[in-house]
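Record type: monomer structure entry
Structure origin: computed from sequence
Chain ID: A
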Amino acid sequence: MERKSVAVLMTVHNRKSSTLECLSLLGRQTDALSREGKYVFSVYLTDDGSTDGTADAVAEHFPEVRIIRGDGSLFWNRGMCAAWDEAAKSSPDFYLWLNDDTMLKPGAVALLLETSTYLGHRAIIAGTAEDSSGRLSYGGRTRYGRIVTPDSMIPEACDIFNGNLVLVPDYVYRRLGTLDRVYSHGFGDFDYGVRAAKKDLTVVVAPGVLAECDRNEGLPRWRDPEFSLKARYAAIMSPKGRPFKEQFIYDFRAYGLFHAIFHFLSLNLKVLFPVK
C-alpha cells in the first residue's frame, strides 16, 4: 500500500524554546506513524526573521525540517502561505497547520488522520486545544466565534476555526488554495472556514482535546486608555491588531456589507473612547 504524504506547515518568530518543544512532540507522533508504514511526513517551517537563533536551533536539532526564511514582515498568515507554497511543490496528500505554541497531546496527529479517513478525506479537520487550567482555548467555532466543545467520540460540525491545529486534505486545497494573502497576521484561518462554506465543503472539529495552548489574554493596546490616541490607532492598524482593511474584508465576506460597516464604526469608537 502506497503511503500518504503529510506536509506540516508552521510559521515561527522568536519563540525558540517553544518551537523546539513543539517540533519534538510532533516528531514523536510522526515517527511512530511513519514506522507503521501508512504515512510519510515533511515539515515546512517559515522562520519570519527571528533574532533569537530559532532557525539555527531548528536546523541543528531537526535537520530534516525545511526552513523558509522571512524578513520579519510576513507574520502568521503570509508566513503560512510561504510554507504552503513550498510544500505544494511536492503535491502532498494532506497539509497540517501547526502553531509552535500548540503542544500536541499523545495520539493527536493519528486522530486527525483517522477522522479524515472517516470523512473520505474531503473535510477540513480542526483540532481543539485547552489552556493550562483545562479551559478550551482554540479550535472549531460557530459562525459568530463561540468555541465548539468537541465530542469524545465523533466529529462535530463547526463554521470557522483557529489555525493552531488544522488538517487540510489535498481535495480541499485543490478547491480553496492556500490562505488568502490579503491578510497579514490574523483573519486568514477564520476566512478559510468562510471560503469553505461557500464551496459547500465540510468543516468539523475532531473528537477530544488534542493539544495544550494558552490564550493570549489581556486588554489589547488599542483598547487601553493608558495609551495615547495615536498609540492606540497605531496598535489597531498593526498586523497583530485589527487592521481596518483586513477586518472589513473578513466581515464583508463572513457577514455582509451592513455588518462590515457597523463593525468598522464600532472599532473606531472603541479606540476613541477606550474603557478598561
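Annotation 1: The chain has a mean pLDDT of 97.
Annotation 2: The radius of gyration is 19 Å.
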